[in-house]
Amino acid sequence: MKNLNRRQMLRVASGLGGGLALSSLLPGWAQSATPGMAPTLPTLTGPNIDLRIGHSSLNVDGRAGHAVTINGTVPGPLLRLKEGQMVRLSVRNDLAEDTSIHWHGLLVPFQMDGVPGVTFPGIKPGETFVYEFPIKQSGTYWYHSHSGLQEAEGHYGPIIIDPADPDPVAYDREHVIVLSDFSFMHPHLIFKRMKQQGGVFNFQKQTLAGLLAGKDQTLKERMEWAKMRMDPTDISDVTGAALKFLVNGHGPGDNATGPATTGPGCSPPASGCACASSTPPRKWSSMCASQV
Question: Which pTM was predicted?
């Protein structure tokens, strides 16, 4: 083991302390492998919002991987807007490649749509692009990169736009839940392997024994798919063999939790409620939710 002198030791200690201080500033609901989510989701709101696109280490199920993040989190910050307002979003690119943000489902001027090569040139490394547009609708949406395969690396986040008039839907508590996937294999390598062999991640292919036993496809169907050189599962060609499925950036093993309420009709074995604990503090569990 390499010996550290006093100066090096102080440098390492200060770096660790700075990292811990920085992690406390990040949204608790978006940090991977944290013990659940905060009761009130941290948001970015108002007429002026700053976003930074950069590289981060993402910890999923106890394993570290690489991610392209928005303000250091996966998913990116929740943007909370109001129907009828103007919003100005300054997006800084800290990557060594072009990036972008597309506001999925939002009615915006075409220059603000965020699709490189179609509506704008993209955001160059080290540059800041300002998106500015009126909010003409309400509802739940999301935003994500339209550059390369950055979205698959974690470049996405949720948007909630509150209606200008009082919300017609009554509720006791609001949960913002982003369902996504993540792979420790770089998306460019996934894409390369799929180009080389379309069913490379399909480990549930029909066997000769299954065909002779009359299981799965008939011989005629199998021949038709073979002519097209496609798998029947082509629409879901990247499977759980390569992906981790996330709840607000948490993998299955992280077991993301959140506040819940028990009561009549919401106790075991009622489906969807079995995960709420019977004693305070009551929480729901993504691990349980996957089992009911």
Answer: 0.74
